[in-house]
Protein backbone atom coordinates (compact mmCIF):
# COMPACT_ATOMS: atom_id res chain seq x y z
CA UNK A 1 0.00 0.00 0.00
CA UNK A 2 1.63 3.24 -1.03
CA UNK A 3 0.13 5.57 1.55
CA UNK A 4 -1.61 4.87 4.78
CA UNK A 5 -3.27 7.78 6.55
CA UNK A 6 -2.97 8.15 10.31
CA UNK A 7 -6.61 7.37 10.96
CA UNK A 8 -9.75 6.20 9.24
CA UNK A 9 -11.51 9.18 7.81
CA UNK A 10 -15.22 9.77 8.06
CA UNK A 11 -16.85 9.47 4.64
CA UNK A 12 -17.54 12.80 3.00
CA UNK A 13 -20.82 13.98 1.54
CA UNK A 14 -19.52 12.97 -1.89
CA UNK A 15 -19.39 9.40 -0.69
CA UNK A 16 -21.78 7.12 -2.53
CA UNK A 17 -22.87 3.82 -1.07
CA UNK A 18 -25.55 1.45 -2.26
CA UNK A 19 -29.03 2.45 -1.07
CA UNK A 20 -29.51 1.75 2.60
CA UNK A 21 -32.50 0.36 4.36
CA UNK A 22 -33.95 1.76 7.54
CA UNK A 23 -34.22 -1.62 9.24
CA UNK A 24 -33.16 -1.83 12.86
CA UNK A 25 -32.82 -5.20 14.52
CA UNK A 26 -31.72 -6.49 17.83
CA UNK A 27 -28.83 -8.89 18.11
CA UNK A 28 -29.90 -12.20 19.51
CA UNK A 29 -27.29 -14.91 19.32
CA UNK A 30 -28.68 -18.41 19.61
CA UNK A 31 -25.96 -20.67 20.97
CA UNK A 32 -26.75 -23.55 18.60
CA UNK A 33 -27.40 -21.84 15.26
CA UNK A 34 -24.83 -24.13 13.59
CA UNK A 35 -27.01 -27.16 14.40
CA UNK A 36 -30.31 -25.29 13.90
CA UNK A 37 -29.86 -22.66 11.16
CA UNK A 38 -33.53 -21.67 11.46
CA UNK A 39 -32.68 -20.16 14.88
CA UNK A 40 -30.29 -17.67 13.29
CA UNK A 41 -31.35 -14.03 13.73
CA UNK A 42 -30.11 -11.50 11.14
CA UNK A 43 -27.83 -8.89 12.71
CA UNK A 44 -25.41 -6.18 11.70
CA UNK A 45 -21.67 -6.59 11.33
CA UNK A 46 -19.39 -3.56 11.32
CA UNK A 47 -16.51 -3.60 8.81
CA UNK A 48 -13.58 -1.19 8.95
CA UNK A 49 -11.11 -2.78 6.53
CA UNK A 50 -11.11 -4.95 3.45
CA UNK A 51 -14.64 -6.27 4.07
CA UNK A 52 -15.86 -2.69 3.65
CA UNK A 53 -14.93 -3.01 -0.03
CA UNK A 54 -18.15 -4.13 -1.78
CA UNK A 55 -16.14 -6.21 -4.28
CA UNK A 56 -14.33 -8.11 -1.53
CA UNK A 57 -17.50 -8.61 0.50
CA UNK A 58 -19.38 -9.89 -2.56
CA UNK A 59 -16.71 -12.54 -3.14
CA UNK A 60 -16.40 -13.53 0.53
CA UNK A 61 -20.17 -13.96 0.87
CA UNK A 62 -20.39 -15.73 -2.52
CA UNK A 63 -23.20 -13.42 -3.61
CA UNK A 64 -24.32 -12.69 -7.16
CA UNK A 65 -25.19 -9.07 -6.29
CA UNK A 66 -23.35 -6.45 -4.30
CA UNK A 67 -24.39 -6.34 -0.65
CA UNK A 68 -26.05 -3.19 0.70
CA UNK A 69 -23.66 -1.35 3.03
CA UNK A 70 -24.53 1.49 5.39
CA UNK A 71 -21.97 4.10 6.45
CA UNK A 72 -21.43 3.68 10.19
CA UNK A 73 -19.04 4.08 13.10
CA UNK A 74 -18.18 2.43 16.39
CA UNK A 75 -16.37 3.60 19.53
CA UNK A 76 -14.43 1.89 22.34
CA UNK A 77 -11.66 0.50 20.14
CA UNK A 78 -8.19 1.49 19.06
CA UNK A 79 -6.67 0.58 15.74
CA UNK A 80 -3.27 -0.56 14.56
CA UNK A 81 -2.05 -2.21 11.36
CA UNK A 82 -1.13 -5.83 10.64
CA UNK A 83 0.72 -5.83 7.32
CA UNK A 84 -1.64 -3.79 5.17
CA UNK A 85 -4.76 -4.65 7.13
CA UNK A 86 -6.30 -2.75 10.03
CA UNK A 87 -6.83 -4.43 13.38
CA UNK A 88 -9.20 -3.22 16.09
CA UNK A 89 -8.00 -3.47 19.68
CA UNK A 90 -10.18 -3.94 22.75
CA UNK A 91 -10.56 -1.22 25.34
CA UNK A 92 -8.80 1.64 23.58
CA UNK A 93 -11.48 4.32 23.16
CA UNK A 94 -9.21 6.66 21.24
CA UNK A 95 -11.37 7.91 18.38
CA UNK A 96 -14.42 6.86 16.42
CA UNK A 97 -13.72 4.08 13.93
CA UNK A 98 -15.51 4.74 10.65
CA UNK A 99 -16.59 2.03 8.28
CA UNK A 100 -19.73 0.34 7.05
CA UNK A 101 -22.39 -1.97 8.43
CA UNK A 102 -23.89 -4.98 6.70
CA UNK A 103 -26.83 -7.05 7.87
CA UNK A 104 -25.74 -10.69 7.92
CA UNK A 105 -28.73 -12.78 6.93
CA UNK A 106 -27.62 -16.38 7.52
CA UNK A 107 -25.28 -18.55 9.54
CA UNK A 108 -23.55 -19.46 6.26
CA UNK A 109 -22.72 -15.77 5.65
CA UNK A 110 -21.42 -15.36 9.19
CA UNK A 111 -19.27 -18.48 8.79
CA UNK A 112 -17.79 -17.15 5.53
CA UNK A 113 -16.89 -13.86 7.24
CA UNK A 114 -15.18 -15.65 10.14
CA UNK A 115 -13.28 -17.90 7.72
CA UNK A 116 -12.08 -14.86 5.75
CA UNK A 117 -10.86 -13.13 8.91
CA UNK A 118 -9.00 -16.26 10.11
CA UNK A 119 -8.08 -16.94 13.72
CA UNK A 120 -6.11 -13.67 13.78
CA UNK A 121 -9.42 -11.91 14.47
CA UNK A 122 -12.35 -12.82 16.71
CA UNK A 123 -15.96 -11.67 16.77
CA UNK A 124 -16.94 -9.16 19.42
CA UNK A 125 -20.17 -7.34 20.16
CA UNK A 126 -20.31 -3.60 19.57
CA UNK A 127 -22.76 -0.73 19.22
CA UNK A 128 -23.02 0.48 15.63
CA UNK A 129 -24.04 4.08 15.02
CA UNK A 130 -25.41 5.15 11.65
CA UNK A 131 -25.18 8.60 10.09
CA UNK A 132 -28.74 9.41 11.16
CA UNK A 133 -27.75 8.89 14.81
CA UNK A 134 -29.59 5.60 15.22
CA UNK A 135 -27.74 2.81 17.00
CA UNK A 136 -28.01 -0.97 16.84
CA UNK A 137 -26.21 -3.78 18.60
CA UNK A 138 -23.82 -5.51 16.22
CA UNK A 139 -20.67 -7.53 15.82
CA UNK A 140 -17.21 -6.63 14.55
CA UNK A 141 -13.87 -8.40 14.26
CA UNK A 142 -11.11 -7.49 16.73
CA UNK A 143 -7.46 -8.53 16.86
CA UNK A 144 -6.98 -11.97 18.39
CA UNK A 145 -3.21 -12.45 18.29
CA UNK A 146 -0.04 -10.98 19.77
CA UNK A 147 -0.37 -7.16 19.83
CA UNK A 148 3.40 -6.99 19.22
CA UNK A 149 2.70 -7.99 15.62
CA UNK A 150 0.90 -4.68 15.02
CA UNK A 151 2.27 -1.33 13.86
CA UNK A 152 1.08 2.08 15.05
CA UNK A 153 0.23 3.32 11.54
CA UNK A 154 -3.37 4.16 10.73
CA UNK A 155 -5.66 2.93 8.00
CA UNK A 156 -7.67 4.96 5.52
CA UNK A 157 -10.46 3.04 3.81
CA UNK A 158 -10.48 5.43 0.84
CA UNK A 159 -6.76 4.93 0.20
CA UNK A 160 -7.10 1.17 0.58
CA UNK A 161 -10.02 1.00 -1.85
CA UNK A 162 -8.16 3.14 -4.38
CA UNK A 163 -5.18 0.77 -4.17
CA UNK A 164 -7.47 -2.22 -4.67
CA UNK A 165 -9.20 -0.50 -7.60
CA UNK A 166 -5.84 0.14 -9.28
CA UNK A 167 -4.71 -3.44 -8.76
CA UNK A 168 -7.96 -4.72 -10.35
CA UNK A 169 -7.84 -2.17 -13.17
CA UNK A 170 -11.28 -0.80 -12.30
CA UNK A 171 -12.77 2.66 -12.73
CA UNK A 172 -14.28 4.79 -9.97
CA UNK A 173 -14.76 3.30 -6.53
CA UNK A 174 -18.12 3.91 -4.80
CA UNK A 175 -16.78 5.45 -1.61
Automatic annotation (TrEMBL):
Coiled-coil parts of chain: none
Gene Ontology molecular function: any one: transferase activity
Cross-referenced InterPro entries: AIG2-like (IPR045038), AIG2-like_dom (IPR009288), GGCT-like (IPR013024), GGCT-like_sf (IPR036568)
Residue ranges crossing the lipid bilayer per the database entry: none
Region (Disordered): 1-34
Biased composition, class Polar residues, residue ranges: 1-14
Biased composition (Low complexity): 15-29
Keywords attached to this entry: Transferase
Residues of the Gamma-glutamylcyclotransferase AIG2-like domain: 45-160
Record-stated family: Belongs to the gamma-glutamylcyclotransferase family.
The protein's name in its UniProt record: Putative gamma-glutamylcyclotransferase
Source species: Aspergillus brasiliensis (strain CBS 101740 / IMI 381727 / IBT 21946)
Amino acid sequence: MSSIATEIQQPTQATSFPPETSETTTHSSAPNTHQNPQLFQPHYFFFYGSLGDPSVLTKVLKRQDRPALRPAMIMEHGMKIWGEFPALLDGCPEKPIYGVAYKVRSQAEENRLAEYETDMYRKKGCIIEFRDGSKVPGVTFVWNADPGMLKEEGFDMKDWLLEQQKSRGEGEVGI
